[in-house]
Amino acid sequence: MSHYSANMDDFAMDSRGMAGPLEARLKATREAGFAQIMLSAADLTSHPGGMDAAVAAVKASGLRVSGFQTLADFEGLVGPSLAYKMGVAKSMLEMCHAVDGHLLVASASTLSHAASDTPTLIRNLRQLAMLAIPMNIRIAYQACSQGAVVRHFMQAWDLVCEADMPNLGLCLDTIDMLTSGASQDDIDCLDGEKLFLVQLADSIHALAPHFRVFPGEGEHSTELATWVAALHGLGYRGDYCLSALNGDYQQMPPPDVAQRAWGSALWLGLDVLQRSVPLPNQIRLKRAR
């Protein structure tokens, strides 16, 4: 165990940010220094050896699965469409459980024809949370910039608070924060206990609108450092997922991408978060479980 492992174990590599077979991405993530990885359903369903082989590869890697993504277009449905999506959700929860994951990311619905009234949205989120309880899985609800109703993370936060389920919390994406013009007042409204996941990415506008890169590689290092420190100050002790997904990374060998991500994690863990802790040598980013 390294002298900085207390910081770095809180950072996860997003599997979608690398190209190649699952085993190569797991190996690159582990060898770069990460202790955990964020998986997607496609990592299991597209494996040439089938789901059992994919699950075995994940477990053999020694990496902790920080979460599973992404359940989309769930809330706002009724009748047969809701029953259909409940089946999809159950399948994803079972896959998450199979790899010993305890967090499923649910993205706000983009369906324009779905119900938009608050009571229906809250009821659906409660149903999803209830479905996840027997598997000891938490639901991290995330706003979507293309969402039909929930486009801003504060809207997602309001629904999480109103649903009031112990295993339902917020997934916060820093790109969404940049696009929505997040303020310190917005962050101060959050509760670290109900914030389940933070997805970190920077952007370079010259390449494309909100072109995602790893924190520290883009144009918003100052804002990202301020937000991460502020979230830590709120009491957030969950995981940080490095979710920089772009076409350039998909054309690079997985070890190269993973090393870039690890450099970003070092900056955040050893510089930004260490400055947020008043006493040296007593850094603890997670509560004992």
Notes on the structure:
45% of the residues lie in helices and 17% in strands. The protein has 289 residues and is α/β, with parallel strands linked by helices. The strands form two sheets. It has an eight-stranded parallel barrel, surrounded by six helices. Strands 8-9 form a two-stranded antiparallel ribbon. Helix 10 (221-234) packs across helix 12.
Which descriptors would you attach to this protein?
10 strands, TIM Barrel, disordered C terminus, 289 residues, eight-stranded parallel beta barrel, single chain, 12 helices, two-stranded antiparallel sheet, 17% strand, alpha/beta, disordered N terminus, 45% helix
**How many structural domains in the coordinates?**
1
Total number of beta strands: 10
Q: Could you please say which CATH topology applies here?
A: TIM Barrel
Percent helix: 40-55%
- Alpha carbon gap, first and last residue: 19 Å
Largest sheet: 8 strands, parallel, barrel
- The radius of gyration over CA amounts to 18 Å
CATH architecture: Alpha-Beta Barrel
- Count helical runs: 12
Q: Flag low-confidence runs.
A: 1-6, 277-289
Q: Can you identify the CATH class?
A: Alpha Beta
**Largest sheet strand order:** 1-2-3-4-5-6-7-10
Would you list the SSEs in sequence order as H and E? Answer: HEHEHHEHEHEHEHHEEEHEHH
State the secondary-structure class.
Answer: alpha/beta
Mean pLDDT level: 91
What shape does the CA trace take?
globular
For CATH, the homologous superfamily is named as Divalent-metal-dependent TIM barrel enzymes
As a percent range, the share of strand residues is 15-25%
